[in-house]
Structures are given as C-alpha cells and as structure tokens.
Specification:
This protein is an alpha/beta fold. 25% of the residues lie in helices and 21% in strands. It starts with 17 loop residues before the first strand and ends with a strand.
C-alpha cells in the first residue's frame, strides 16, 4: 500500500470526501467546504533533531494507607525510553492504553519532572530545569490535549483562551492581542468574529481547533499532540489531521504524535515508535514498520486494524489474538515485558531483557527472536551479541561482539537478521 494513499480504515480520510459539520450558530457557512485528504506527511530524516530523549524514566510512588504513608512500590510508567524527533518532522507514538504514551508526552512538556534520564530540546538539557527556567521554554514546546471538552476553560471566552499565552509571556501589547487571536482563529478554519463566544457554543471539532490555535499562539518549535482526534467524530477527523499537516508545513513545527489509530499515525508520521508497558519495543520508518514489522507485539497491533480494501476483494487478514492481560507496571515481568503474552517466548526472554537492536537503516526492535511474521528464528539472535547462551545464562567462552545499548537515533551500521552479521549503508 502506498504511503501517499491513506488506508480506508478506522474512519480516516481516504474514504469518500466528507463535508465539515455545520456550525451550530450558522454564521460560519462561508468557512465550510468539502474536505479532501492530503497526501501523507513527508519525511525529514536528514534534519537535525530538535528533541532527543535518552533513557527517560518516570516512576510514580505507591504509598500505603494510614497515618504514616510509606512508599511501598513504584508504578514504572516510563522505563528507559530513547528517541529523536527531527526539526520540522513527526514521530508517532502508539500502543495500548496505559503503556506510557501520554506520560512520555507530559514529561517532554515538563508537566511532570522525570525520575531520571535526559531530555535535550534544541541543544539544551531541560529534564531538571527549574520552574522559573521553564517559563521561556513554554514558548517553544506546546501541547494539544486529547479531550477538547475539558481542556478549555468553560468560564473564559475563546478570545481569552487563545490570547492568554500572549498576555502571560508579554509577546504583544494588549491592544495587539485581539487582532492576533482573530488571525489564529482564521488560520485554524474558524470565524474570527467568534472570539467572544464560549467553548460550549462550539462543536467538538471546533473546540479542538481552538485548542490547536492556543498551541500555535507562541509559534512553538515542538507540538506534543496527545491523541488530538480520538475524541472527535469520524466525519471531522480528516479536517483536523489536514489542518495539522498545513500548520506543520507553514510553521516548520516538529510533532510528537500520540495516538491509538494506526491509520492516522501512518498518514501523519514518517517514523513510528511502538510502546508496551513503559518501553519502546520497535521503532522504524513508516514503510519498514507497517510493511515489515519484526516484533510480535507490533504484528499483533497491525493485525487488529480493519482493512476495508482487503475485505472488498473477499480476503481476510489473520487476526493475532494476544492471550492474558497486560501485566501491572508496579511489578512488571522480568526480562522481556511482553513475554507473558508472547507466543514465541522462550527461557531467555524471562532471564535477559532484549536490547533495542538496530536491524536496518532506520529500524530498531527489542526482541530476542526478531523476524517478520511467520519467519521468527528458532534461536535467539541476540544471544551472541550479549555474551549469553540460548537460555540466557552467561556463556564463559563468549564475549559481546558489539555494544547494544539504548541510544537515540540510528547508526550507520546494523545487525542483518538474515546473515547474522553486521551490515552498513
């Protein structure tokens, strides 16, 4: 399937063109037009990273009940995550609910202070920046929240909501704020004369546009979009996705795009990372991950996506059903965290955590038995690299042949799964 053609699945653009919902007031009819899907977002692989995450961790304490509340454990929401986001590019973050996607986004915007790890934004380390030091950073990193109904203050007008960042950061004099607010409303496809209305007077899609306008107010370099279309009606998801693409192209904004909808992510993000229980299990460019997934969890996720075209010709893709529930992040499994639900897990999976191993030019996977569906190896490919035998026990006669770590980005050399040797560009 071409990346220039969005899959007609999960209600994404690519179906017959749909019309925008009618404005509840009726005065915005001149802003309503037939919405057609844009082409898939272009890759920016050669651009320098505007954001670099290295070994990021966020552990939330679990406290006992009673008068003296002791810490009795930790919720390992994010555990050793590393990736890069190129300037003006997009990285998609997908996975089941509770895997740590939204927590990662909140760590990057510094709504949470990380337990450990590094967050480098535009060459600056911001993981431990003080509250006072974060204020100028807010101008460059903004967030689009998932729920357009609760992320807007119902007591404030749209003009006050969108104009608040300009007043707080004293970017413009007071008499210039309103014209700028009206300009932003027009950019996101709303009637600029509606600045004095309240959020309840707008539909869900229009409220999300207001949230996008607020995020664009200070012209940030990075936008963390936390499931920006999941709470919207199918008929207006295409509008918001197209709007985000236009905004990205016009202002050269980098996106960390968090979503459940794999079709949306494929359309918007040239690079995608898959999370499971606080860890990245696979990260790759769009073509590699969707056409050649190597991790059993990624393969299971993709098998669950409805394929309208395949159904139309009478075929049916085999669904991979995962057994059991997601383990608790308070007490995750030893070794590979996915092993309790994995059909190909062996003894080494319980003893040794698989490294995020680069297996292609822009493809990494954390699995001892990495391979395409139906072609997983019988012996662990990581054993000789880690200096262990096939069961995960230390091998006295072996030594690690390469250093396998958790570094962000990609190397010029990688491990070829077919030849079982190192390869290069």
């Amino acid at each position: 399937m071409s990346d220039q053609q969005l899959p007609t699945s999960v209600g994404m653009p690519g179906d017959d063109p749909v019309s925008r919902t009618e404005d509840p007031i009726g005065e915005a009819a001149r802003y309503v037009e037939t919405e057609r899907p844009h082409s898939a977002s272009a890759a920016h692989f050669d651009a320098e990273p505007v954001l670099e995450i290295r070994d990021l961790r966020m552990y939330f304490p679990v406290r006992s009940a009673g008068i003296i509340r002791r810490t009795i454990g930790h919720v390992q929401a994010v555990d050793g995550v590393s990736f890069q986001v190129p300037r003006g590019g997009s990285l998609g973050l997908v996975g089941e609910s509770g895997c740590g996607k939204s927590t990662t986004g909140r760590l990057i915007t510094r709504l949470y202070e990380p337990t450990s790890g590094s967050i480098r934004f535009d060459g600056r380390e911001i993981a431990k920046t003080s509250s006072r030091g974060l204020k100028p950073l807010r101008r460059e990193i903004q967030m689009i929240f998932q729920d357009p109904y609760t992320s807007l203050n119902p007591r404030h007008t749209v003009g006050a909501i969108v104009g608040a960042p300009l007043a707080i950061h004293k970017v413009l004099p007071k008499d210039k704020i309103l014209p700028r607010v009206q300009e932003l409303l027009e950019i996101v496809g709303l009637n600029p004369e509606h600045y004095n209305r309240y959020p309840h007077e707008f539909s869900g899609g229009q409220r999300q546009r207001i949230g996008i306008a607020r995020a664009l107010t200070l012209q940030p370099k990075l936008l963390v979009a936390d499931e920006p279309v999941s709470a919207l009606d199918v008929s207006i998801q295409a509008q918001v996705i197209n709007l985000l693409q236009e905004v990205q192209a016009e202002f050269n904004i980098a996106f960390l795009f968090i979503a459940h909808d794999l079709a949306v992510v494929r359309h918007f993000c040239p690079e995608v990372a898959v999370m499971y229980l606080g860890k990245i299990v696979e990260i790759a460019d769009r073509d590699s991950l969707y056409n050649h997934p190597n991790h059993p969890y990624t393969q299971a996720l993709l098998s669950a996506v409805p394929d309208v075209r395949q159904a139309a010709i009478g075929g049916r893709r085999e669904r991979i059903r995962l057994e059991g529930d997601v383990p608790s992040p308070i007490n995750p499994p030893s070794g590979c965290r996915f092993r309790t639900r994995c059909a190909i897990a062996q003894e080494i999976c319980a003893r040794v955590e698989p490294p995020l191993l680069q297996i292609g030019k822009r493809h990494k996977v954390a699995c001892h038995f990495a391979g395409e569906l139906g072609r997983h190896p019988e012996r662990p490919v990581t054993a000789p690299l880690l200096g262990v035998d096939d069961t995960g026990s230390p091998d006295p006669g072996a030594s690690p042949s390469i250093e396998v770590g958790n570094e962000p980005g990609y190397s010029n050399t990688w491990f070829d799964l077919e030849r079982k040797t190192m390869a290069g560009a």
